[in-house]
Write a structure and sequence with these properties.
The complex is a heterodimer of chains A (294) and B (260). Chain A has 294 residues and is mainly alpha-helical. Chain A has 15 helices and no strands. Chain A is flat, with a radius of gyration of 28 Å. In chain B, the strands form two sheets. Chain B has a six-stranded mixed beta sheet, sandwiched between helices. Chain B has a four-stranded antiparallel beta sheet with strand order 2-1-4-5, with helices on one face. The chains are: A mainly alpha (294), B alpha/beta (260). The interface between A and B is medium-sized, with 22 and 25 residues.
């Protein structure tokens, strides 16, 4: 009996067939829908969510047994503090302050990095300039520049922005540069064949062709900037009146509101995770879709 | 041969390039002419500078000596009036779909507005029978399909001259034969002018109406042959074999016993 007939005959007959020839049944099952439980378990969000729940539970149990809210508040206390801080404590506006400064520094940094990398792509001297500058400044932790920044720009957003630009500029310039360098000769020749030169050539050919590498740079630049920002805010940030999340954490530590400190840290983590998934989405929409993933 | 002035005139072109240690002469005093609707094939073994000449015509290389003129104007740089089709399959921009790749060529070179470009792109894609894949990204296409898109892109631009740098060399034998026939079909339909670089004697006879035979180190013109087959697609034609033997003799004459 062929496979085809097992499909076309009636249900009752098929049962009979499979009883007489068990191998037919095995082949006949070409596609079986997964059970609901399997489908749910296949979602990485579900699995990761479960891990988060387990971590929170472990935290709650351990902190409750420790019973020392000054050192290690429970998860529930932190959650309540988080809620209060957002509802009344103005944590939301602190987040806005931080994100605003961050975006300013990030965007200026990316712009400068692009200019530098484009120069380096066009001329040999520009190439040397970029290599010397990145070799010098990339290993220099941004936070180490804070004292100088304070001296030049005073206590306030100017200093933080300066330090942020430094944190973003070099890693982004470096990866953009290596991205440009890895563009195939054919791609370049195709672009020039269309008569593209100068800025249109950079924007329409070089940047998209180097995008996988640029995206990596943007991710690294973001991570550097975010850490630098929180660290810088921990040092100061009071001058602008409200201050950012870093200052929120520091303030609450001084007032021994440790649950609020944890709430602040959770916010920092939350924003980091959100940005990470945004970058992942961007990656799926661009590099993965174009088949350009390394 | 032609009564009017040739479309492309290559006169005494010597091309040299520098490596880290030395100055290498790639071609020496190369000259030939291309008339409108010609299918000129540059044929020779590797090292004969055939791709180098094509790149000079494309405007990517400047000759150390000699002149290349298109329609009387000296070529000074790359431009959309001379569209290249490369051997490499990464010549399509990976971040654009098939249709966008073709349309972008038209808009980037300011040959058409976005709407016109979209229409012309679709028309060009239809001529290479890829309309089903118009919205696919290049990395999902096979090698032959990619080359077809590159040819469609090139023809959509309606260039003065089409420059093909071994476009089928990376394809498997069956696809290659099919592509050769399709290219001839396209030519029969729109009678474009092209220079086709290859190292395959059969491909040269099949595709060219004239063949420039080059010898290597440095590249020089040995002979220019006219192909006068009534049915070029027929590979078992007696005349086809005669031509192949002639070319073989010319190309390998100097090598003597070296060739088995």
């Amino acid at each position: 009996m062929s496979l085809e007939t097992t499909f076309t005959t009636g249900v009752g007959e098929r049962t009979q067939l499979s009883q007489s020839r068990p191998s037919d049944q095995a082949i006949a099952e070409i596609a079986r829908p997964l059970s609901l439980a399997e489908k749910i378990w296949n979602q990485s969000l579900v699995r990761k969510g479960l891990i988060l729940v387990l971590l929170a539970a472990a935290w709650q149990l351990y902190a409750a047994r420790l019973n020392n809210p000054l050192m290690f508040p429970t998860f529930s206390d932190t959650a309540i503090a988080f809620w209060h801080a957002f509802a009344q404590g103005g944590l939301g506006s602190r987040v806005l302050v931080s994100v605003k400064i961050l975006l300013t520094g990030y965007i200026i940094g990316i712009f400068l990095a692009t200019v530098l990398a484009a120069l380096a792509n066009g001329t040999r001297l520009g190439n040397d300039l970029l290599e010397v500058l990145t070799a010098m400044f990339n290993p220099l932790p941004a936070i180490a520049l804070l004292p100088v920044a304070l001296l030049w720009f005073g206590l306030g957003n100017g200093s933080i922005t300066f330090v942020l630009i430094h944190a973003v500029l070099w890693p982004v310039a470096l990866s953009t540069h290596s991205g440009f360098a890895s563009i195939s000769n054919t791609t370049r020749m195709v672009g020039r064949n269309y008569g593209l030169t100068g800025l249109p050539y950079v924007v329409k050919i070089l940047i998209p062709a180097a995008f996988p590498s640029i995206l990596t740079g943007l991710k690294n630049g973001w991570a550097f900037a975010w850490r630098t920002l929180i660290a810088a805010e921990l040092v100061f940030g009071v001058s602008s009146g409200s201050g950012g999340i870093g200052w929120f954490i520091y303030e609450n530590k001084n007032q021994l509101e440790i649950a609020y400190v944890f709430a602040g840290l959770l916010t920092v983590i939350g924003i980091g995770v959100t940005m990470d998934s945004l970058f992942r989405l961007l990656e799926q929409r661009t590099v993965n879709r174009w088949g350009m993933k390394f | 041969m032609a009564t009017s002035a040739p479309l492309l005139d290559v006169q005494g072109v010597t091309i040299q390039y520098k490596t880290a240690e030395q100055l290498v002469t790639a071609t020496w005093q190369v000259g030939f002419q291309v008339d409108r609707t010609d299918r000129l094939v540059l044929l020779g073994p590797s090292g004969c500078g055939k791709s180098t000449i094509l790149k000079a015509v494309g405007g990517y290389l400047t000759p150390a000596d000699g002149r290349i003129t298109l329609d009387g104007r000296t070529i000074s740089g790359p431009g959309p009036d001379r569209m290249m089709v490369f051997q490499e399959t990464d010549q399509l921009l990976p971040w654009k779909t098939v249709r966008q790749n073709v349309a972008f060529a038209l808009t980037a070179s300011r040959k058409a507005s976005q709407n016109e470009a979209d229409e012309q792109a679709m028309a060009a894609i239809r001529t290479v029978k890829l309309e089903k894949f118009a919205d696919a990204y290049p990395h999902t296409l096979s090698g032959g399909m990619k080359q077809r898109v590159a040819i469609a892109r090139c023809l959509a631009m309606k260039p003065e001259i089409v420059l093909m740098d071994e476009p089928f060399a990376a394809l498997d034998a069956l696809t290659r034969q099919q592509m050769q026939e399709e290219l001839l079909e396209l030519w029969n339909r729109s009678k474009f002018t092209m220079i086709f670089v290859t190292h395959s004697i059969e491909e040269a006879i099949l595709l060219g109406n004239r063949i420039v035979l080059l010898s290597p180190h440095p590249g020089q013109v040995k002979e220019i042959l006219d192909v006068d087959l009534d049915d070029p697609a027929n590979r078992f034609h007696g005349r086809f074999n005669d031509l192949r033997d002639t070319i073989h003799r010319v190309l390998f004459h100097d090598l003597g016993d070296y060739v088995i």
